[in-house]
Amino acid sequence: MLLTGGQAGEAPQFLRLLELEEKKPRVVVADKGYDSQLIRKALRGQSVKAQIPERGLAAGSRRRRKGRPPKVSKQLYSQRNIIERLFGRLKEMRRFACRFDKLADSYLAFVQLAFMRVCLKPYFSDTP
């Protein structure tokens, strides 16, 4: 997990996160926000398969890249919803979504606690 400023986007941090990864992934499944030549090139350089759909273009525009469009497995891409639902649950906590903490350390500690709370809830609750 990398902590950035609240206004920073997540896609620019992708390469830093990929370098930190202890175990190299075989496949990266991401949404259209990660569709960039830089990210695709970095993944190819590490022999990681990219499951990232191409961004849509405005009507009448030409394709951004030469060659055939990247193939995306619908089955693999549909598994992204697991992460999307996790972040949806986390954003229900106002403190996570609004980032009330002023210090990075205290916010990071809360984020870790929030992840633990969401992930452990099924084991310690009568209702899912």
Question: Which terms summarize this structure?
Answer:
single chain; 128 residues; mainly alpha; 2 domains; two-stranded parallel ribbon; 6 helices; 42% helix; globular; Transposase IS4-like domain-containing protein
Description:
The longest helix is centred in the last third of the chain and has 17 residues, at 104-120. This protein has a two-stranded parallel ribbon. It folds into two domains: 13-55 and 67-79, no CATH class; 92-128, no CATH class. It has six helices and two strands; from the N terminus they run H-E-H-E-H-H-H-H. The model has no long low-confidence stretch (mean pLDDT 82). The protein has 128 residues and is mainly alpha-helical. Helix content is 42%, strand content 5%.
Write the layout of secondary structure elements.
Blueprint (H helix, E strand, L loop, with lengths): L13 H7 L6 E3 L7 H9 L3 E3 L22 H5 L2 H11 L2 H5 L5 H17 L8
Parallel strand pairs: 1-2
